Structure formats: structure tokens, C-alpha cells
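ESCALATION

Customer reports they have been waiting on this structure for their group meeting. Please prioritize. Original submission:
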Amino acid sequence: MTFHFCPTCGSTVYWESESFPGYVIVAIGNFADPNFPAPTVSVWEESRHPWVSLPPDTPPKRVAKQG
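Update from on-call: job pushed to the front of the queue and completed.
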């Protein structure tokens, strides 16, 4: 994986993975627009901080299809 960071604050902006060639993964937290579409997939639920709560209708983690 290759991570790309903000040169000002050091936050992760996006990353790329050899497992998903041609895809760029952008953290949803990078968008301040309240009209931005809600996430359709949740990842890393098992290791989230205890203070993070997901909406009850959040779909379970899915494996993206390649190709």
C-alpha cells in the first residue's frame, strides 16, 4: 500500500493498493460537505475505537470484486 499525506497537517488523504490496481481509496473524513453520499461499505469495524458508533443500517464489511 502507498499512503499519500497532507503536507500541512499530515492527515492521510488517500492511498493506493497493489491488490486493487486502478483504484484510489479516499478516506470519507476528507469531505466536509454534509451532502456527500453516505458510505456504502464499512471497513475495520473489529478494530474501531470504542467511542465510534456506526449507524444501525450500515452494511457489513464486504470484499471488493477485482476486474
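Sent to customer with the following note: The mean pLDDT is 78.
Escalation resolved.
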